[in-house]
Specification:
Layout lengths: L2 H6 L4 H42 L2 H35 L1 H34 L6 H30 L5 E3 L2 E3 L3 H5 L4 H29 L5 H35 L1 H7 L11 E3 L2 E3 L2 E3 L2 E3 L2 H7 L20 H32 L6 H27 L4 E3 L3 E2 H4 L6 H29 L6 H4 L1
Antiparallel strand pairs: 1-2, 3-6, 4-5, 7-8
Helix pairs in contact: 2-3, 2-5, 2-7, 2-14, 3-4, 3-8, 3-14, 4-5, 5-7, 7-8, 7-12, 8-9, 8-11, 11-12
Length: 449
């Protein structure tokens, strides 16, 4: 029992629900801006590079417009990220009190990456006309690198919660801490790759969706076509890569977190010839209405029908995650990934045949919602990651109920945070709509374009 629990008494299930609800809201809200912070700088640098290379005014106009959006999104993401950092200590003192020295390294490195990103983003935004074109372009490179690094550091901390390494336990006390071993645990690679690719896809499909709506409304000029094609092409190119990364992550679960995979696939019995369930609902302890592919899961995990896949029957009932939401979230993520892959293939086929995007308005209609679908895929992916790990906050080492703050007032904190996020949401939508409507971008754009 943690010292805080001794002073305030053990936490109750109500405390746990309040803390998890607040953390889910904060993480779910912040992750959208984190994804845009990772992916948008790549789009921004590419368009500026093309503008300097070709002298194309439309590329430069896109670069300046997107720079303004990146500045707004970074500022809001910094606020939500700060809230999350406080919540780690306020909501989960049991975790940080026991294991803080083990997972402190990635959080420290993330802080350094954040400051590098902030410094160079400030230079980039305010030095358009004070640096040479080459120097200005180069000043944006650290923004991209630091954003990707920041995401990797944070994800590695979460990966450690799924695969705790780099320490020994002696009488309930942490000893022999190896921070680098903890940071580069077995889950770091599959989770980081999957998340970073997802961030670029959210940025690409999300940005393209704005211009898809404009194209549907008749704005067929070159500026809007480029605004659509540049980000959509990036996201489309990454769609098949993400499918492979997801397959890698799922096979990782089979070896390291089999109970999570069993919940995601609603596999109740261990054995060979494990079926793959597409869709379906978990009702009364069984999967119903699913399309079942015989031996499909065994083939995906071990490439042979005889591969033994561990089911939920190998885990004690108290150690099983909530099966219904994990399975539903997993199917939603995979289904959306498949739809985005098909939409990407539609563009590739049209470009191969006609050197142009599809003429059907249905393509643009689907593309206009692709960004929202990509966000839903990311959110449901995190539901699989976090809810699928339950009841453990540190897999196999510490239960979530042991880590939560037992002090009263957690629901009040949730209410305050919810109000803050509601205000931030309204403010972000208002500012971005104002930028889109008025064309207010970085200084000197009108004169140069």
């Amino acid at each position: 029992m943690t010292p805080l629990a001794v002073l305030a008494g053990p936490a109750s299930p109500a405390d746990l629900v309040a803390a998890r609800t607040q953390m889910a809201l904060s993480l779910g809200w912040h992750i959208v801006f984190a994804c845009l912070g990772v992916g948008m700088p790549a789009l921004l640098l590419f368009t500026e590079w093309r503008a300097h290379r070709t002298g194309d005014a439309d590329y430069l106009r896109l670069a300046r417009r997107w720079a303004t959006a990146v500045g707004v999104l970074f500022a809001v993401g910094a606020v939500s990220g700060t809230i999350l950092s406080f919540e780690m200590g306020l909501l989960w003192p049991g975790l940080m009190g026991v294991y803080g020295e083990v997972i402190g390294l990635p959080f420290a490195l993330e802080g350094i990456a954040f400051f590098i990103e902030a410094i160079f983003l400030g230079i980039y935004l305010y030095a358009w006309d004070r640096l040479s074109p080459r120097a200005h372009l180069l000043s944006g490179v650290p923004v991209l690198v630091a954003g990707v690094a920041s995401a990797m550091f944070v994800v590695s901390a979460n990966a450690w919660m799924n695969q705790p390494r780099g320490f020994d336990l002696d009488g309930g006390r942490v000893t022999g801490v190896a921070p680098w071993a903890a940071m580069f645990n077995p889950a770091t690679a599959p989770q980081s790759v999957h998340m970073i690719i997802a961030a670029f896809m959210v940025s690409g499909f999300g940005t393209a969706g704005v211009y898809a709506v404009a194209l549907l409304r008749g704005r067929r000029d070159r500026y809007h076509r480029l605004g659509f094609l540049v980000p959509f092409t990036l996201a489309a190119a990454l769609s098949p890569v993400q499918i492979l990364a997801g397959d890698f992550a799922a096979r990782f679960l089979a070896g390291y977190q089999p109970t999570k995979l069993a919940a995601a696939e609603a596999l109740f019995r261990t054995g060979p010839n494990a079926p793959l369930h597409l869709g379906g609902l978990v009702l009364d302890g069984q999967i119903r209405y699913a399309v079942e592919i015989p031996s499909g899961l065994s083939m995906l995990v071990g490439f042979t029908p005889g591969t033994v896949v561990q089911g939920l029957d190998r885990a004690a009932p108290a150690d099983r995650p909530p099966i219904a939401p994990v399975h539903l979230a997993f199917d939603t993520m995979v289904g959306i990934g498949t739809l985005l892959l098909l939409l990407s293939a539609w563009l590739a086929l049209s470009w191969w045949r006609r050197r142009d995007m599809p003429a059907s308005p249905w393509f643009l209609r689907f593309a206009s919602v692709a960004g929202v679908l990509a966000v839903v895929a990311v959110e449901t992916g995190w539901v699989v990651t976090e809810v699928g790990r339950q009841p453990w906050i540190v897999y196999g080492r510490m239960r979530t109920l042991e880590a939560v703050n037992p002090a009263p007032g957690l629901w009040a904190g949730f209410t305050v945070v919810a109000v803050v996020y509601a205000v931030l949401t309204v403010a972000v939508v208002y500012v971005l709509r104002h930028v889109a409507r008025t064309g207010h971008v970085a200084p000197q754009e009108t004169a140069e374009t």
